[in-house]
Write a structure and sequence with these properties.
This protein has 5 helices and 3 strands. It has a single domain, classed as Winged helix-like DNA-binding domain superfamily/Winged helix DNA-binding domain (Arc Repressor Mutant, subunit A). The protein is of the alpha+beta class and 118 residues long. The mean pLDDT is 88. Helix content is 47%, strand content 15%. Strands 1-3-2 form a 3-stranded antiparallel beta sheet. A hairpin with a 2-residue loop joins strand 2 and strand 3.
Length: 118
């Protein structure tokens, strides 16, 4: 483990940091692992159905539904629900707002990672 000490104050806990941590302004809705997986898949396709997303992410039906609902509430995804025969079929697509938010998230994370020493 590395011991880190603030050269200006001698503090070892970082409590008196004057700059916010680079991750503090990351979109937390996107940053959650399950939602990040979903948006990553949706970013590269026009749309995907619920079954495909479940298979690709390994999420349960309930978790997938919950995360998609949060993304839908934020305006990041659009859900198109229909019936095929007697079975429900849900298509999910990234909205323009969601595409922009994900692109900004990617750029910000890249800046953070590029700024790491080593």
């Amino acid at each position: 483990m590395v011991d880190v000490q603030d050269e200006r104050t001698g503090s070892r806990d970082g409590a008196d940091r004057t700059e916010p941590h680079p991750l503090s302004n990351i979109d937390q809705l996107i940053h959650a692992p399950a939602r990040l997986m979903l948006l990553t898949y949706l970013y590269v396709v026009e749309s995907a159905d619920f079954v495909f997303l479940k298979r690709m992410t390994g999420l349960s039906w309930g978790n997938l539904s919950t995360h998609l609902s949060k993304l839908e509430e934020a305006g990041y995804v659009a859900l198109d629900k229909e019936f095929r025969g007697k079975k429900p079929h849900t298509m999910v697509s990234l909205t323009e707002h969601g595409r922009t938010a994900f692109s900004e998230y990617r750029s910000r994370m890249q800046e953070i990672l590029d700024g790491l020493p080593g």
